[in-house]
Amino acid sequence: MKIILLLNNDIASNFALNLLLPSLAAHQVQVFLSSKVGGNSARPQALQELALFEQTGIYQALAQSKTASAFKTYADIRQQYPIAIDTLNDINSRAGIAKIKAAAADLIISIRYGVILKPPVIALAKHGVINLHSGQLPAYRGVMATFWALLNGEKKLATSLHFIDDNSIDTGDIIGYSSLAVQQGHCYLWHVLSLYIGGCQLLSKAITGIASGKALSTTKQASQGQYYSFPDAEQVNRFIRQCGALYEPQALIKLLTEHHDNEQISR
Fold it and tell me: Is residue 7 part of a domain?
């Protein structure tokens, strides 16, 4: 199949791509990156620092680590795999739609992509658009679902794999869920990355099923659930008091280097 991956320029999307590389080996793949998630409104200092770490700090830490060589950065993947990776923030513009149309994708996969897709883009993929959301739907729609689940005291976290049928947010039919028990003592970003291990296994099965011509079994979401936006400073401070750090470099490097796969896409 021809597959478009819509990802964000951050470590979580990059990690997800590492996990998916073996499943993508038989397919023609093109990646488009958003530069960020959400608009330009001011966010608490701690969230700004988190975003900076997700996009630059973690890569600096990985570069200094002696055990991180197996993890593939976006730059590594560009050089070592037959995958084009480009930035695309205006996907719903005339030029953006033209780029997606030119790719003639059979399937579009979204993971943390920072722009809400509109119907003209959604209609371009033969088998539709599927999204891997790092939260239990419909209870945790919106952004930073893992943050909110941890702050709300959930004992188990989830990813939800679902179709995107329109430009509403996280409302499409559910393909499946993966789950992760909350691990006390680990940071927010560790939980986000850990969720993608099971989530990408779920996504890999969906890719295989679609490629073989099978219709995926889906279920309607039971309710509208709850929509979450970015937390304010008080909520971030409460999270740190109750749940711990937003990120912890050494624990994250350990996770990234333990869960990689060296299988390469055939050239």
Answer: yes
- 188-211 and 249-258 helices cross at what angle (nearest 10)? 20
Distance CA 63, CA 65 (A): 6
Tell me how far apart the alpha carbons of residues 23 and 181 are, in angstroms, rounded to a whole number.
25
pLDDT at 39: 67
Report which of 68, 63, 67, 13 is spatially closest to residue 35, judged by C-alpha positions: 13
* Portion of the chain with pLDDT greater than 90, in percent: 87
- Establish if 263 belongs to a structural domain: no
Q: How many folded domains does the chain comprise?
A: 1
CA atoms within 13 A on the CB side of 13: 25
Gap between the Cα atoms of 99 and 91, Å rounded: 8
- Would 172 be classed as within a structural domain? yes
At 185-233, the pLDDT tens digits run 999 999 999 999 999 999 999 999 999 998 899 999 988 899 999 999 9
Q: Which residues contact 80 (CB under 8 A, 6 or more apart)?
A: 72, 264
Which three-class secondary structure state does DSSP give residue 162?
strand
Beta strands 2-8 and 107-111 are parallel
Query: Across-strand partners of 4?
Result: 30, 108
* pTM metric for this prediction: 0.94
Residue 266 is assigned to a structural domain of this protein: no
* 125 against 39, higher pLDDT: 125
CA distance 66 to 193: 20
**Amino acid 138: pLDDT:** 97
Cα–Cα distance for residue pair 183/32, rounded to 1 Å: 32
Q: What are phi and psi of 144, to 5 degrees?
A: 55, 45
What's the CATH number where 227 sits? Answer: 3.40.50.170
How many CA atoms, within 13 angstroms, populate the side-chain half-sphere of residue 40? 0
